[in-house]
Design brief:
It is a single chain. The protein starts with a helix and ends with a strand. The protein is α+β, with helices and mostly antiparallel strands and about 100 residues long. The protein is built from 3 helices and 5 strands; from the N terminus they run ααβββαββ. It has one domain. The longest helix is centred in the middle third of the chain and has 17 residues. It is globular, with a radius of gyration of 14 Å. It has a 3-stranded antiparallel β-sheet with strand order 1-2-3. The protein has a two-stranded antiparallel sheet with strand order 4-5.
Length: about 100
């Protein structure tokens, strides 16, 4: 399974997520020209998660959390946003999921 390679562990060891969520995310994985992309559930665009020189396991986990928020907490994807600027004191940071 390609997710095992990207995460460098077995997906069955991901106890926070159901097998159904892991299997569903696998359906959104696309391989093109030695690169691997996930079709983002919220942004509706392909996000690169792996190539010969780099992997982005954090994007896989973020997508799994989107599925968890939908399935277990009832939040629709339309009510979610990613990489949103949040002001914290005098500085600004990006929130992964809002």
């Amino acid at each position: 399974m390609i997710l095992d390679e990207i995460l460098k562990q077995k997906t069955k060891d991901l106890k926070l997520f159901t097998q159904k969520q892991i299997d569903e995310l696998q359906e959104y994985i696309v391989e093109k020209n030695d690169k691997v992309f996930v079709n983002c559930l919220v942004r509706q665009k392909e996000i690169q998660i792996s190539s010969k020189v780099k992997t982005a396991p954090e994007e896989v986990v973020r997508q799994l959390y989107l599925l968890k928020l939908r399935d277990e907490y009832g939040y629709p994807f339309e009510n979610m946003a990613l990489e949103v600027d949040v002001t914290m004191g005098s500085s600004s940071k990006k929130a992964d999921i809002v």
